[in-house]
Design brief:
single chain, alpha+beta, GROEL, domain 1, GROEL, domain 2, GroEL, 3 domains, three-stranded antiparallel beta sheet, 17 helices, 22 strands, 46% helix, globular, binds adenosine-5'-diphosphate, binds magnesium ion
């Protein structure tokens, strides 16, 4: 890269660096971002298709979830990565609407390009988009309806909308109801404000059975069995010790030498080891604990003594499970047996080993903290259980968000059509070129109902025209029944979503689109990972089994 000053070329970038500027840089970025959006667009809605993703090790993920698809795709192009970020932000903030956000961002950029072609300056477009998004959120707020935590039916509808088309289809109602019960169990109310942390809900996956066999347990379910068959299977009034230390003697270092000269000495050495283990167990017995969860290992001899003392013990318990057990039972996680205190023990009414299918698990119920709940997720194969888990995640998050905000909107493309209509009216009140940008923003929103129709194999133009005319007549919740191919009232259909999902989708899509638009210079050093690939625009590495880049317009 060389500039020209008094005939003397000035090198400002290291040799081998790449640089694209101006309109070319914009086109590159927009094309890459659009390609990513197009890749997930066919999954949108209840009748969207699934993607099969194959990673470099041959592991397969089959999913309909936008955030998961984009996360698994090995994307290199920097602008394309920004679209991936959009869906990640959406997932972090609200847990649903990840495809919507990415698709909307792609469409905003596509429409911006049309304006760029008409020589509208990117800054003007970005400003117009910003104005439009503020207005859109204002209008959206007026479309929202109140929902109270005790309106269980409505919450079930929200959960069920979130999981429509996500593999849990056959048992949608039961699954949605399970999600609602779980979330209601963990709601925190402080000063009249509800908060939900879905991490309080422990999801334990178990392959086998069917999704309908999934169940809610009031308490913790730990995927571990007791270590010794002589231990009790069922312990009432459990006093629980959580230990992050191995109940083992640290093995002597390989190069340390112990010189044992006679059989007596060896026996002495072994006796001593056994004594140390016995002492450890005695400390536990003295504390009054009758249940021990150990994050590390338990020596055979220690197991024997624990069983003799009538203590139920499980080993190699996951760190995250230890933390959840601590919260559920009020126990402290001890790092050493030295400082053991009765007050460090947790409490639960019942701890027992139960079988799920073939495998034994530990159930900790009637916990000290009644808000501890677990869901045991069943499904025929690993792929089914994994996709069910993603569906459950969406359901839990949307119900949680709705309980926190108390606001919902109709789905099925109805809010987007209404917003498009009203934004067009709003654009008429503006002057200058921002008006054009607001108009394009309105148009971009219609990509959502359009994709819902397209993915259902419906006549897109007819459906859109029908929806628009219903909204013009004041039916604000008219949307698409994708199964019947009719425009109907989405509230009556029970297709409802949290307000926050739509708000966030508009926010993050606008933000990413305007950020990409403002870039007019891409400098990438040769070796930087994630730099502009030599292939030029849309360079995406290893798309796995995605079948390349379909739907590039
Ligand atoms: N039964 C239904 N009928 C019509 N539209 C629906 C239905 N259920 C969900 N939708 C719509 O599908 C869209 C969400 O699709 P989804 O594939 O879950 O993508 P996202 O990742 O954006 O949540 C929303 O616009 C929602 O309103
Ligand atoms: Mg969804």
């Amino acid at each position: 890269m060389a500039g020209q000053l008094a005939g003397q070329p000035i090198l400002i970038l290291r040799e081998g660096s790449q640089r694209t500027r101006g309109r070319e840089a914009q086109s590159n970025n927009i094309m890459a971002a659009k390609a990513v959006a197009a890749a997930v667009r066919t999954t949108l809605g209840p009748r969207g298709m699934d993607k099969m993703l194959v990673d470099s090790l041959g592991d397969i993920v089959i999913t309909n979830d936008g955030a998961t698809i984009l996360k698994e795709m090995d994307i290199e192009h920097p602008a394309a990565k920004m679209i991936v970020e959009v869906s990640k932000t959406q997932d972090d903030e609200v847990g649903d609407g990840t495809t919507t956000a990415a698709v909307l961002a792609g469409e905003l950029l596509k429409n911006a390009e049309e304006l760029l072609d008409q020589n509208v300056h990117p800054t003007v477009i970005a400003n117009g988009y910003r104005l439009a998004s503020i207005k859109a959120k204002e209008i959206l707020a007026t479309l929202a309806m109140d929902v109270r935590p005790d309106n269980r039916d409505l919450l079930v509808k929200i959960a069920s909308t979130a999981i429509t088309g996500k593999g849990a289809e056959s048992s949608k109602e039961a699954f949605a109801s399970l999600a609602v019960s779980a979330v209601l169990a963990v709601v925190n109310t402080e000063n009249g404000k509800n908060t939900v942390d879905v991490d309080d809900i422990k999801v334990e996956k178990k392959v086998g059975g069917s999704v309908e066999g999934s169940q809610l347990i009031e308490g913790m379910v730990i995927d571990k069995e007791r270590v010794h068959t002589n231990m009790p299977k069922r312990v009432k009034d459990a006093k629980i010790l959580l230990l992050n230390e191995a109940l083992e003697i640290k093995k002597t270092e390989v190069d340390a030498e112990i010189s044992i000269k006679s059989p007596d000495q060896l026996q002495l050495f072994l006796d001593q080891e056994e004594q140390m283990l016995h002492d450890m167990v005695n400390k536990i017995v003295a504390s009054g604990a009758n249940i021990v969860f150990v994050q590390k290992g338990i020596d055979d001899i220690a197991q024997h003594y624990l069983a003799k003392a009538g203590i139920y013990a499980a080993r190699r318990v996951k760190k995250s499970d230890m933390e959840k057990l601590a919260r559920a039972t009020g126990a402290k996680i001890l790092t050493s047996l030295k400082e053991i205190n009765e007050s460090d023990l947790g409490k639960a009414g019942l701890v027992e080993e139960k079988k799920i299918g073939e495998e034994a698990m530990t159930y900790v119920t009637e916990c000290h903290n009644p808000k501890a709940v677990s869901i045991i997720l069943r499904g025929g194969t690993e792929h089914v259980v994994d996709e069910a888990e993603r569906a459950l995640h969406d359901a839990l998050r949307v119900v949680g968000v709705t309980i926190e905000d108390g606001k919902l909107v109709a789905g099925g493309g109805s809010p987007e059509i209404e917003l498009a209509l009203r934004l067009r009216e709003y654009s008429a009140t503006l002057t200058g070129r921002e008006q054009l940008a607001v108009g394009k923003f309105a148009e971009a929103l219609e990509i959502i109902p359009r994709s819902l129709a397209e993915n259902a194999g419906l006549d897109t133009i007819n459906m859109l025209v029908d929806m628009r005319s219903q909204h013009e007549r004041g039916n604000k919740t008219a949307g698409l029944n994708v199964f019947k191919g009719q425009v109907v009232d989405m509230l009556e259909e029970g297709v409802v979503e949290p307000l926050r999902v739509k708000m966030q989708a508009i926010d993050s899509a606008t933000e990413a689109a305007t950020m990409i638009l403002r870039i007019d210079d891409v400098l990438s050093s040769k070796s930087a990972p994630g730099g502009m690939p030599p292939g030029g625009p849309g360079g995406m590495g290893g798309m796995g089994g995605m079948g390349g880049m379909e739907g590039m317009e």
